[in-house]
Design brief:
By secondary structure, the chain is of the alpha/beta class. The protein has 2 domains: 3-124 and 254-308, D-Maltodextrin-Binding Protein, domain 2 (3-Layer(aba) Sandwich); 126-252 and 323-337, Periplasmic binding protein-like II (D-Maltodextrin-Binding Protein, domain 2), CATH 3.40.190. Helix content is 43%, strand content 15%. It has helices at 3-19, 36-49, 60-70, 84-92, 164-177, 179-191, 201-209, 220-227, 232-239, 268-278, 281-290, 305-310, 321-325, 327-337, and strands at 26-31, 52-57, 78-82, 120-132, 156-157, 215-219, 241-244, 253-261, 294-295. Mean pLDDT is 93; it is low at 1-21. Keywords: Signal. Pfam families: SBP_bac_6. InterPro entries: Ferric-bd.
Length: 340
Amino acid sequence: MNRLFAIALITVTAAACNQSSGDDNVVNIYSARHYDSDAYVYDAFTAETGIEVNLIEAGGDLLIERIRTDGERSPADVVITVDASRLQRAEEAGLFAQTDFSALADGVQAHVIDPDGYWAGFALRTRVIAYNRETVDPSEISSYLDLADPRWQGQICIRSSDNAYNQSLLASIIAHHGEQAGEAWARSVVANFARAPQGGDTDQIRAIGAGECDIAVVNHYYYLRLAHSGDPATVELTDRIGLIFPSGNTGTHVNISGVGIAANAPHGENAEAFVRFLFSPEAQRAYAEIANEFPAVTGAAYDNADLRAFDGFEADTLNISELGDNAETARRVFDRVGWP
């Protein structure tokens, strides 16, 4: 989203929230997501319930700080953000009300729901290993730990250590194996860098195509966005690149987009209705078909053949809350091993 447009959107929708604070037929949503799937879900929710959505959209850290600063005066009813570490920050800032998600998120596995009831994951994203089909034998990589093998020296592209997805991946390794093992892994991966970390996940995929590296670590939906781009050259690029969903060791790392009801929600019943709708068949289908994210509801139906081809991977069932719990340790480890 254009930055100026985002700022304007925040200003306009903030005014709408303030003007509508006395209206019982609204829900004020603060979201760090900016996908077409979400716009579809908001419209579908209003069409089904008659409840109007007031949207404030900005980066996760900005949203957290704004709601925290507003305190009891905040008009926020629902808070949506991405990645376990940001959900943890929002929880620690006291932004969420404890909620019985068993009544709202039917069919969602326990490991993507906060055990204390502050948030739940409504869309799943996996961190997978992309590789050059011509130069890499995928049978040689069955887990993230294999990326530390010296055989991959000079062959790995990956984002910087300030990227929340990488922080959560390392946090999962620390949760499973301990800080010392996590540090040893990170140090070895640094030794295998093909280049200094730069760019986003799409840039890592393109770097494989450009011959800058043979292996990259990315979220699966970035690959599918390129594959569905309709641009012949981009589609041809993805044809030359494969994805490995790790099955060895702890399985495939799973992260989430998560939702919580705001601690001081002025429209609590509407907030619950909206959260319940996020887990409805219509919303779950939208995340899979439009955003290429895996549904959080087990067995949700959707029509996306490329995403469906990846379904059935062996997921790491570590509770997502542990990623947030170990995020600060992961950041310290990254600093110690010199991961830029």
